[in-house]
Amino acid sequence: MNTTEPGSSRANNHYVAALLRPIGAMAVLLVGYFLLPIGRDSNWKVVGMTLGVGLLVGFCVWEVRHFLRSTRPVATAIEMLAAVMCFYIVAFSATYFLFSEYVAGAFNEHLSRVDALYFCLTVFTTTGFGDIAAVSEPARVAVSIQMASTLILLGLGIRFLNVLVQERVSGGGRLHDLRRRRAEDPDGR
After folding, report:
1. Where would I find the Potassium channel domain in this sequence (predicted)?
2. What is the domain range of residue 123?
């Protein structure tokens, strides 16, 4: 019996893991967003931001390596896109929160972290209820950047992942050749 057939426990474990990875990434990002000291009153804001960037870089490296080793590149590409979108939303939420903390009158009201996340999600989903609005020019520029980059992220991100999946599924391309050469000559001679 093939243990990777749909319905087998090994296949089911893979589907559960594929579901839990982006949910776990989202949970870690949100916990970091709410707990890392990035506000005005914190002496640890530089450490918090540095830790956040370091975790992001580590996560990106892990995601790429996971994709290259994956036996299910389509599912892995979807996981990667979900994780990138979660980071994107948290990064803009933190930006709006910091604008509200450091730039007087950036928004029509002072934003808590929850308010900033809510505002970011309304911009991301193009809902825009109008209860929170960017008032200062720098805040409006940040919101405009988010709106434009949302389109870019979705368009280019989906295209890039499509190319990676096609290359990975076909078993060809430069990545495959590089891995084959390394396997044939581990010393790089």
Report:
1. 85-161
2. 9-184
